[in-house]
Design goal:
With 56 residues, this protein is of the alpha+beta class. It has a single domain, classed as Alpha-Beta Plaits (2-Layer Sandwich). It is built from two helices and four strands, in the order βαββαβ. The strands form two sheets. A two-stranded antiparallel sheet has the order 1-4. It has a two-stranded antiparallel sheet with strand order 2-3. Strand 2 and strand 3 form a beta hairpin. GO terms for molecular function: iron-sulfur cluster binding; metal ion binding. Pfam families: Fer4_7. Keywords: Iron, Iron-sulfur, Metal-binding.
Amino acid sequence: MAARVIKALCIGCGVCTRMCPLGAISVQVKTASVDNALCDECEECIFACPNGAITV
Protein backbone atom coordinates (compact mmCIF):
# COMPACT_ATOMS: atom_id res chain seq x y z
CA MET A 1 0.00 0.00 0.00
CA ALA A 2 1.43 3.37 -1.01
CA ALA A 3 1.44 6.57 1.01
CA ARG A 4 -1.69 8.67 0.82
CA VAL A 5 -2.34 12.35 1.42
CA ILE A 6 -4.99 13.60 3.82
CA LYS A 7 -6.14 16.52 1.70
CA ALA A 8 -7.78 18.38 4.58
CA LEU A 9 -4.37 18.63 6.30
CA CYS A 10 -2.13 19.24 3.28
CA ILE A 11 -1.06 22.86 2.68
CA GLY A 12 0.91 22.12 -0.48
CA CYS A 13 4.24 23.26 0.98
CA GLY A 14 6.23 20.74 -1.10
CA VAL A 15 8.48 19.47 1.69
CA CYS A 16 7.39 15.90 0.94
CA THR A 17 8.28 16.24 -2.73
CA ARG A 18 11.83 17.22 -1.86
CA MET A 19 12.20 14.36 0.63
CA CYS A 20 10.84 11.57 -1.60
CA PRO A 21 13.87 9.67 -2.97
CA LEU A 22 11.80 8.20 -5.81
CA GLY A 23 10.00 11.34 -6.97
CA ALA A 24 6.65 9.73 -6.24
CA ILE A 25 5.06 12.91 -4.85
CA SER A 26 4.06 16.06 -6.68
CA VAL A 27 2.09 19.12 -5.64
CA GLN A 28 -0.87 20.00 -7.83
CA VAL A 29 -3.37 22.74 -7.05
CA LYS A 30 -1.87 23.29 -3.58
CA THR A 31 -2.21 19.63 -2.56
CA ALA A 32 0.34 16.83 -2.61
CA SER A 33 -0.39 13.77 -4.71
CA VAL A 34 1.32 10.36 -4.52
CA ASP A 35 2.03 8.24 -7.60
CA ASN A 36 1.23 4.78 -6.24
CA ALA A 37 3.28 3.10 -8.96
CA LEU A 38 6.45 4.86 -7.78
CA CYS A 39 5.94 4.84 -3.99
CA ASP A 40 7.87 2.13 -2.14
CA GLU A 41 6.55 3.06 1.32
CA CYS A 42 9.89 4.35 2.63
CA GLU A 43 7.93 6.79 4.86
CA GLU A 44 10.35 9.70 4.33
CA CYS A 45 7.40 11.90 3.36
CA ILE A 46 5.53 11.00 6.54
CA PHE A 47 8.40 12.17 8.71
CA ALA A 48 8.97 15.28 6.61
CA CYS A 49 5.38 16.57 6.52
CA PRO A 50 4.98 19.44 9.00
CA ASN A 51 1.19 18.93 9.19
CA GLY A 52 1.02 15.14 9.42
CA ALA A 53 -0.91 15.06 6.16
CA ILE A 54 0.66 11.86 4.82
CA THR A 55 0.00 8.32 6.00
CA VAL A 56 0.53 4.79 4.72
